[in-house]
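Treating backbone geometry as a discrete language has practical consequences that deserve illustration. No coordinates are needed to read the tokens, only the vocabulary itself. For completeness, the protein is quoted in full, as a sequence line and a line of structure tokens:
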Amino acid sequence: MIITVQLRGENYEDWAKHVRNALRTKRKLGFVDGMLQKPETEAEIEQWVVVNFMLVAWIMNTIEPTLRANISMVEEAFELWEDLKCNSLQGMDRTSVNCEVRF
């Protein structure tokens, strides 16, 4: 996945827009927006796991290195996406958001 914007923390909205657009072009957005859940059948699980880990690597590679060093490794792209979104809400009113930040 190629995008020119790196996540630096304060630019989450811009970064997320670019990543979502890139994932749409690859038909992979469902992995990060929760629409494509891990399948239950053995035959489909292996392919899902391969794509999921590829997306985790893609997303991690779009994060500024010093910020990336502070991110806990997660195994699912959706979980990583949610963690990054919640972390971006620091300093904002999070009363209506249920986030468990793992940074």
